[in-house]
Write a structure and sequence with these properties.
Its cofactor is Mg(2+). By secondary structure, the chain is an alpha+beta fold. Helix content is about 40%, strand content about 20%. The protein has a 4-stranded antiparallel sheet with strand order 2-3-1-4. The structure holds inosine-5'-diphosphate (IDP) and magnesium ion. Inosine-5'-diphosphate (IDP) binds next to loops.
Length: about 140
């Protein structure tokens, strides 16, 4: 298994409830190392471009509004199989369908306000990391 990097976002529902540390503990206990992290307020343009793949979906506008409703924590996670491992610890998109130990089962408010984003492939991870971070900001 190769060492990989993935992009994680702690979403506004979770920053609002002061859950950054609880969520980071899950990543670290799973063997994912937080090699870059910054708390930012996304602009509408940034959130819209980041989720452009969902532009035609009925939930797109609400999703962008939600993602700019408060600060997010942008992160690069590194570890063995980091993309799949992060998806495992996140749990299913809909917290009602997520396994009990996962971040979304434990912390998410709804299918939209589901506390975390994680890249879904190595290729998307590379693009998403580049969207938010300069290489000099990533410190393994
Ligand atoms: P993922 O975050 O598990 O990869 P995606 O299908 O890529 O799920 O959807 C991106 C985000 O859009 C979700 O995390 C969630 O915030 C939101 N979303 C997805 N499906 C729905 C829906 O049916 N209603 C409302 N929001 C949704
Ligand atoms: Mg996705």
């Amino acid at each position: 298994m190769a060492t990989e990097r993935t992009l994680s976002i702690i979403k506004p529902d979770a920053t609002r409830r002061n859950l950054t540390g609880n969520i980071n503990a899950v990543f670290e206990e799973a063997g994912l190392k937080i090699v870059a992290q910054k708390r930012v307020q996304l602009t509408p343009a940034q959130a819209g471009a980041f989720y452009a793949v969902h532009k035609e979906r009925p939930f797109y506008k609400d999703l962008v509004d939600f993602m700019i409703s408060g600060p997010v924590v942008l992160q690069v996670l590194e570890g063995e199989n980091a993309v799949a491992k992060n998806r495992d610890v996140m749990g299913a998109t809909d917290p009602k369908k997520a396994e009990a130990h996962t971040i979304r089962a434990r912390f998410a408010e709804s299918i939209e306000a589901n506390s975390v984003h994680g890249s879904d492939s190595a290729e998307n991870a590379a693009n998403e990391i580049r969207f938010f971070f300069a290489e000099t900001e990533i410190l393994p």
